[in-house]
Specification:
This protein has 74 residues and is mainly α. It is built from three helices and no strands.
């Protein structure tokens, strides 16, 4: 099974899915609802909403700096 990220309008995404070869088994769809501006961007909202489904392991630093900085060999 090969995952694919589809971006665009609903129409564009629907046409792309309909044209895919093979069977589509699952889809995760992010729907941006019109809301009053809260100072949080749409991409940050996605991460906030997905937090209950996030797996965290042990004493790992999940901050942006922790994830993207190079680990020093001990």
């Amino acid at each position: 099974m090969k995952p694919q990220v589809l971006r665009g309008s609903k129409q564009t995404i629907a046409e792309t899915v309909a044209g895919l070869a093979g069977e589509v088994r699952e889809a995760i769809v992010f729907v941006e609802e019109p809301t009053a501006h809260t100072g949080v961007t749409g991409s940050e909202d996605v991460f906030i909403e997905m937090e209950p489904f996030t797996v965290h392991a042990g004493d790992v630093d999940y901050s942006r700096e922790g994830l993207y900085s190079r680990a020093e060999d001990e």
